[in-house]
Amino acid sequence: MTQNLSYQADHKVQQNRWWILVAVGLFTFMSTLDGTIVNIALPVISNDLRISMSQSEWVVSLYLIVVCSFILFFGKLSDLHGKIKIFRCGAIFFIAGSLLSGFKVNLLFLLVARAVQAFGAAMTMATNNGIITEIFPQTERGKALGTIGSFVALGSIAGPGLGGVILARLSWSYIFWLNVPVGIIAAIIGAIFLPQDITFTRAPLDRRGSFAFALGMITLFGGIFLGQQLGFTAVPVLVMLIIGVISFVCFVLIERQAANPLLQFSLFKNPDFSVSLLCALLIFITNFFFNVVTPFYLENARHLATSQTGLLLMILPIVQLFTAPVAGTISDKIGPKLITFIGLVLLLISQIGYYLCNLNSPLWLFIGSIAIMGLGSGIFSSPNNSLVMSSVKQKDLGVAGSINSLSRNLGMVIGISSATTILFAAMSAKKGAHVTGYLPQQPEIFIYGMHFVFLISIIICLVTVLLSGWRLFKKQA
To answer: Does the pLDDT of residue 2 top 50, yes or no?
Structure first.
């Protein structure tokens, strides 16, 4: 049985729609932020818990892997049983996980707490776009989704800067505990203003597909992160990678036969949907290339203090915060495809700017590139979200929103797992010896590796520009 009503005719819901956006946006920001903010605290966490840096990296990796593993499941579950119900459950899990993560017990306790936090984050990420798309009218949908997009991108990029500011004054526990009061405020706003679910489909859940997808995500990306520590020829790593590949093959076969599949491959036949998702994935990969390389460049190569680096990095999210809602409003009036294309061109220009930086280049070149990247991200994210969510039927909004969030989180995972590997491989090739860190006596070797990373970013951004341009001009022709 399918029930499809509309919040558009509910005067009370429409009157409170901006409060609903605040509640959803705050959880969206915190869920995304917690995939990035912990990176800068890893050395401190390692010292406090007396563990190695390689062990502490699982605090970041596990969070992203759990989010990616369950986000499709919760997206589908929200279509079946109600997006707002799943969102509220996710808020509780996220707040509880954030509270537990701040207690300095041991690594196992922290990893379990992070898994709980990620479980809740997957619920809120899977439902945020669907809730906003259902509640806001077509004339304001781009602006609303643009605001959610700005929260997503802000959370993904503001982590290093905000984390540095917190660690300058407080212990690493407050990186997690910051979520608790903000989460409680957002949950109270949601409890007051979020309506009851009225759009859902009573259908059986694709349990086999859900299990195969989660198993594939956990073993494949778990194997990749473990391989960076043990080597990719280690037996446990090879076993995990093989299980991951087999699980994804099984997932595809299951989905093609399932009556109510977790992932409907027919959605990808729509170029607006598939191109927008691919562009989001690629852009988030480049974002995390930037997150990994920038601290090395500013603090090690240019000898800036951590506080200065944090302030410079805050330029990007601040520019994006003001740009994204404006871009969403404009896309409501003239359509999202041209705006998306302009944003991607600006992102390409920013990567070229980073590539031109070296040990002696004026610092304004790097700062200007950061500002252009913030402008491009803000312009791109809003209409891109709108394209994804407006290209599917109402009954598929939950799974479409979860796929959209999955593409971003996959970009984070791929970016984090590959950035340092690419950087140090290029540095090793330049030096003619194995390199696993910054070489203070040979900064030019780092600059070579940085240029190689940003060259790949340029190529990735160029691909997104060509894809977006093809879609735009093909439609106009």
So the answer is: no
